Write a sequence for this structure.
């Protein structure tokens, strides 16, 4: 058992995906015990120009990163078929591969490409997914690859894939005493980062709207925190809260109409909701303690938040209609910044035990708590829209980095950055 | 300048040299605007540009601190505050004003009472441990503790603004108790 685990860890450590253009590099540090063997064969290509990306390699990396699959190395492949008629199933049985992904890239006019793929079951010798194709421009090869990964993942696990999602995060670069803060958006695998906003003053708490088109965040201006809403496609933005004191922790309601946020304009930090269209503010908590870090439950009926009304910070649940508050967390020295899984079954929190801050998972029904991480100064957990993974910020070799852990705690990987501190990850919803 | 004051500056000089890695001596970063969409422009502000700050560190919990504002003596009768501490430190997860802060705070209170037009911003900070928004609240709580201390001494509430930077603007960059202590602070900043 231990040996097997060691092997899988060793194996996954060997998977090291990088790209010269990517700022974040994925490094899998441990893996699950039961991995589904799959071969992603290099896609056939009949053209002469170099392709912008190796689609099969991206698909392979996506699947490996999920911690559920073990990719058969290309160097072991006995053949590299590109259509089902050319597949010798016994070759793949020999390699103990349960599934095979094959595909082709065809150049079309106007810088377009047709990317076709099939998913084959080696044991039944039948396609799970018959030949299917998508047309993309050279710029969108990675989108095509993530789309294929999502398909394969869903067909084989029954869970929707989250490879086509994106992440928001904040970097602090340059001189530590006067860093440049950048709010960036990238693919969920860290590739294709783009700066959303940059400032010499701090940026924190980025949050996605449920349709993935808009974001909210806190940015300091003239040494005071303000909340902004920004449309990602156009960059158009709106300053929505600039009250005296705190303007913090914006969280989008599931229906996209409201933001939960923290204001201390009436003396101490309280949770409010803001109707974005009408600009109407409603105060949701009323307590002399700190109330902060609101996050909507997926059904929109409740808001989980952090409060130290009981002495030290713990997670509470606010019923949006009645404004009734009840305590949710009881284990650990403290629990802060809760986020709920999309099915409403669990919350993840930052829990402190014996001076260590780790990401904890609590079952909302049974109250059972599991510590998911063992890294240093873990914070800012954010859950993938399929509920499979939690991205969080941690400190590694003295630097702020992002890391990911599966909700069962078995799969862990880091996304180290090339330069600066990385923090405040926020995982996007599915894009419609 | 009195002899005692000279002595004080010598101490500052020493501690500044010792803790050079932690000082926030302003760099002359350019003040050009940050990249923004066309609708809004950002004024990058270098409010630290004109002040030299040094943080003296004693043994662990016995911190002393001095900020020398070179321009203070040129500024509307702020002479009485020359050499007065403007950074006040706090215990972990606490917002209680320490006894050693009282003397300097009394001088700030005295100045503010004597100059009703003076405005002060109390900027609260937290160390890196714990979550960022909770630390924003904690920083504010510390700033408010200083604010209460000043208002009790007669300073009008309208002269004081409290702002929190949470853990976003550390002055020490280590991941140890010394760095954390230096970062759990409230900075007193006079608005000009």
């Amino acid at each position: 058992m231990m040996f097997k685990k060691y092997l899988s860890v060793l194996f996954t450590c060997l998977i090291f995906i990088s790209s010269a253009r990517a700022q974040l590099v994925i490094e899998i540090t441990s893996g699950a015990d039961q991995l589904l063997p799959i071969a992603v064969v290099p896609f056939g290509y009949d053209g002469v120009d170099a392709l912008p990306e190796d689609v099969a390699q991206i698909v392979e990396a996506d699947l490996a990163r999920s911690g559920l699959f073990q990719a058969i190395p290309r160097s072991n492949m006995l053949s590299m078929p590109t259509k089902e008629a050319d597949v010798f199933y016994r070759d793949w049985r020999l390699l103990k591969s349960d599934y095979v992904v094959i595909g082709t890239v065809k150049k079309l006019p106007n810088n377009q490409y047709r990317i076709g793929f099939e998913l084959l079951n080696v044991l039944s010798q039948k396609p799970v997914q018959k030949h299917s194709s998508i047309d993309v421009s050279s710029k969108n090869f990675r989108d095509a690859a993530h789309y294929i990964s999502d398909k394969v993942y869903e067909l084989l696990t029954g869970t929707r894939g989250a490879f086509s999602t994106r992440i928001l995060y904040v970097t602090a670069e340059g001189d530590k005493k006067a860093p440049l803060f950048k709010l960036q958006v990238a693919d969920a695998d860290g590739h294709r980062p783009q700066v959303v906003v940059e400032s010499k003053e701090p940026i924190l708490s980025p949050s996605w709207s449920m349709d993935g088109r808009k974001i909210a965040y806190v940015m300091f201006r003239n040494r005071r925190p303000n909340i902004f809403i920004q449309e990602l496609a156009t960059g158009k933005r709106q300053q929505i809260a600039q009250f005296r004191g705190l303007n913090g922790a914006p969280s989008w309601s599931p229906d996209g109409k409201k933001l939960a946020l923290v204001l201390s304009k009436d003396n101490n930090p309280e949770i409010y909701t803001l109707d974005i269209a009408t600009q109407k503010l409603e105060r949701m908590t009323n307590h002399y303690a700190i109330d902060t870090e609101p996050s909507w439950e997926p059904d929109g009926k409740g808001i989980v938040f952090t409060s130290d009304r009981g002495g030290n910070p713990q997670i509470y649940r606010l019923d949006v209609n009645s404004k009734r508050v009840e305590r949710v967390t009881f284990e650990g020295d403290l629990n802060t910044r809760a986020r709920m899984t999309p099915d409403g079954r669990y919350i993840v929190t930052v829990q402190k035990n014996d001076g260590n801050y780790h990401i904890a998972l609590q079952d909302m029904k049974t109250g059972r708590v599991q510590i998911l991480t063992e890294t240093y100064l873990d914070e800012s957990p954010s859950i993938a829209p399929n509920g499979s993974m939690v991205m969080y910020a941690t400190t590694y070799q003295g630097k702020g980095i992002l890391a990911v852990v599966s909700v069962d705690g078995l799969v862990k990987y880091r996304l180290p950055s090339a330069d600066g501190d990385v923090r405040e990850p926020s995982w996007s919803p599915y894009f419609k | 300048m009195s002899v005692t004051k000279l002595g004080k500056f010598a101490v500052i000089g020493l501690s500044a040299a010792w803790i050079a890695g932690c000082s926030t001596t302003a760099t002359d970063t350019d003040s050009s605007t940050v990249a923004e969409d066309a609708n809004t422009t950002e004024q990058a502000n270098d409010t630290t540009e004109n002040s030299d700050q040094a943080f003296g560190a004693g043994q662990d919990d016995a911190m002393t601190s001095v900020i020398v504002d070179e321009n203070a003596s040129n500024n509307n009768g702020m002479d009485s505050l020359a050499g007065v501490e403007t950074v006040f430190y706090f215990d972990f997860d606490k917002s209680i004003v320490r006894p050693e802060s009282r003397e300097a705070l009394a001088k700030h209170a005295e100045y503010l009472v004597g100059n009703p037009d003076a405005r002060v911003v109390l900027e609260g900070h937290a160390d890196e441990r714990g979550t960022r928004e909770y630390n924003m609240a904690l920083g504010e709580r510390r700033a408010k503790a200083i604010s209460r201390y000043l208002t009790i001494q007669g300073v009008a509430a309208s002269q004081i603004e409290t702002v929190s930077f949470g853990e976003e603007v550390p002055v020490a960059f280590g991941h140890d108790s010394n760095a954390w202590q230096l970062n759990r602070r409230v900075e007193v900043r006079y608005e000009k």
Observations:
- Helices of chain B lie at 3-18, 102-114, 132-152, 177-183.
- Chain B is about 30% helix and 15% strand.
- The two ends of chain B are 25 Å apart (CA to CA).
- The mean pLDDT of chain B is 72.
